[in-house]
Amino acid sequence: MRTTLGSPRAWLRAHPLIGDSALALVLAGLSVTTAVLIGTSDPTGASGPVDAPDALSLTLIALCCVPLALRRRWPFVLLCAAEVAQIVLAALHYDDGLTGLVSLILLYTVAAYRGLALSLVAATVASVSYVISTLLGDDVGGWMQQTFVAVVALTVWVVGRSIRLRRAYLAELVDRAERLERAREADTRAARAEERSRIARELHDVVAHHVSVMTVQAAAARKVLDTRPEAAKDALMAIEEMGRTAMREMRGIVGVLRTDGEAGELAPQPGMVDLPGLVDQMREAGLRAQLWVEGERRALPPGIDLAAYRLIQEALTNSLRHAGPAARAWVTVRHDPGELLVQVEDDGTGAGGRLARGPEDRPGHGLVGIRERVALYGGILRIGPRQGGGFEVRARFPLKDSHI
Asked: Where are the membrane-spanning stretches (predicted)?
């Protein structure tokens, strides 16, 4: 059962000194009581004569048990001290109460919190001390008793080592998971930064085109303002429309900064009108692709036009790479009022492999770029398995009114 936050067990784990102190006091009290009862009621003992308890014996028992409160800090030192106290008690023929439990607890602590070498030394010290105490106290006992003691001590040591190894294994797993998470986040940030830089370059070309057209129109309006007012009016209206479009693009790119400082490409960027050529390229590469365009076609904002094209391009490329040689792909573009729907599906058998890099696990850089593009324009994206087999990528782009 897991330890819940605020439970007594969790509180004791957070304050080990308190729990160890209580354990030490309980064992000390039980050991003193046992020694007094045995020494006064049955001085001959079950295994040999014992002297009546006095201040020295009770002090040795207390000194053996009370330091148990610091067992997590100095387990080996306290084990040696406890064994020395037990040897003295056996040599003076005093009953040692329950100090044997103290030795087992300290042996477990050394095995669970210290290295292998020190834990082996602790086991040797405990074994030698037990043999010396047995011989000095004339309490050799039978072979069954000695075998039982040896099995119990060995079991305690093995349990301690197992817990230490398990704790180290879990710590390594946590550390490895944290390292992998940091590496994945770094890769994702790098992919997003790279994709944002590419988006910035592409949109820079779109906005630069609009500004260039506005400059030409303004120059033409200035030249014909006095002689041909109607022509100047048409030029000013074109400048107004271009300005509104440029403002929309600038608003969509807020927060996307160019990081490489390279000049944008001068060639015009592709758009939805280039989809037939893209589908033909995929067919020539071996993917049986088909294109459907539904609804009334309309002029799209340049940024959305480019983002939708790149999305289809990335999805078809993934289908070509992962869907299999006999796969088919369908591209559907639907123009709805106030919305553009783009959907790419395939019926390939490689969907399971592609899910490993889907949004639920470790997204590839291409899918990260798709998400960035769709989110940049307030769209909704779904990437996942297709009903009936295969894979699909679906995006909805909102189309806003063209006003500032």
From this structure: 21-40, 52-69, 120-137, 143-160
